[in-house]
Amino acid sequence: LRNHIGLGDLITERDAEVLNMGFKLTFFSPNDFFTNETLTKSYIYRDELGYEGDFVYERSEINWKDEKDLTKSFEIKKQRSKNTNSTRLIRKVHPIDSFFNFFRPPIPPSEDALENGEVDEEELEDLEERLELDYQIGEDLKERIIPHAVDWFTGKALEYEDIDMGDEDEFDDENLEEDSDEEKENDDE
Predict the structure, then answer these.
(1) Which secondary structure element, helix H or strand E, spans residue 43, and what is its range?
(2) 42 falls within a domain
(3) Which alpha helices (DSSP H) does 141-188 contain, by range?
């Protein structure tokens, strides 16, 4: 907000302290898939945690309507009893990839679990990567998608993405050329 031409002059240093607390994303309206009128996810900034600190979230629990949960697949199998030879149906639920898993960020282990060594280093690294990715998705939605929602809807924003990618490639190529020129100079000496 401080970078906005019209709003930047209105925000004082005291205001900035409050505005730096976090952000909240709100999605959807009533639909056929869940009973929630909207879904929200809040990201809370904590300076004392620093970059390496915990990510703090508040989120909506999705109340899926019957058979509409997009984060799970449902499988019905027949099972025959050996004793009675009768057949019954068993419903198995399997988790699947979905955008809506965004509303279920990974849960960090408790302090007790960490202290007792119940979580190994590899699990912690995986968890940290998943939390950082979740946070980055939220930041991208806030900074890149929402401010240009109409452009994303019409597809015009894809042109911007191509331009950004082209600039990065040019930068990388320039660096590679500079590095190879330096190597040639060092080889000549």
Answers:
(1) strand 39-44
(2) yes
(3) 149-154, 157-188
Is 150 a member of any domain? yes
24 phi, psi to nearest 5 deg = -130, 130
Distance CA 32, CA 113 (A): 40
Domain that holds residue 27: 8-164
- Tell me whether residue 43 is exposed, middle or buried, using C-beta atoms within 10 angstroms of its C-beta: 0 to 12, 13 to 18, 19 or more: buried
Tell me, yes or no, whether 36 lies in a domain: yes
d(CA 145, CA 138): 10
Which of these, 68, 63, 71, lies nearest to 36 by C-alpha position? 63
Question: What total of structural domains would you count in the chain?
Answer: 1
37-46: per-residue pLDDT in tens?
A: 888 988 877 6
Are the beta carbons of 95 and 72 closer than 8 angstroms?
yes
Cβ atoms 134, 103 nearer than 8 A: no
Taking residue 138's Cβ as centre, other Cβ atoms within 10 Å add up to 21
pLDDT digits (tens, 9 = 90+) for 129-147: 888 888 888 888 888 888 8
pTM: 0.61
- The token pair at 129 is 């990567």
Cβ distance 122 to 151 under 8 Å?
Answer: no
